[in-house]
Amino acid sequence: MFLVGIVFALFCIYIINQNFTIMASIQDFKDQLKRVTDATDNIAADLKRLADQIEQGGISATEEAEIVASLKAAADKLEEVAAINPEPETPTEPIEPA
Which of 40, 43, 57, 94 is the most buried (most CB within 10 A)? Predict the structure, then answer.
């Protein structure tokens, strides 16, 4: 009977360790997803800020050139990402932010 208790205790420890591993993996996934979400939000904010500056007018030719260069650089980076992560055959429906 004592041996059965030890086996059961070891089995419980094994199950607990497995759950911790799964939970750690889930947390890692959530952390990575948050980084992607934060980066996407930052890109959107930057693009909106640049668009607002252009719409407001009254900027110098130098500032306008800097904005255009920034937009082109952002577009180039996004194209690189798109090449690594191509669109699926069937586009997914956009999800409205909460």
Answer: 43
φ/ψ of 70, rounded to 5, equals -65, -40
Answer yes or no: pTM beyond 0.85.
no
Report yes or no: 83 and 75 within 8 Å, Cβ to Cβ. Answer: no
Whether 51 contacts 64, CB under 8 Å: no
Q: Which two tokens stand for residue 14?
A: 């094994």
Q: Is residue 69 part of a domain?
A: yes
Our count of domains for the chain comes to: 1
Those residues with Cβ within 8 angstroms of residue 54's Cβ, 6 or more apart along the chain or in another chain: 64, 67
Q: Which residues contact 82 (CB under 8 A, 6 or more apart)?
A: none
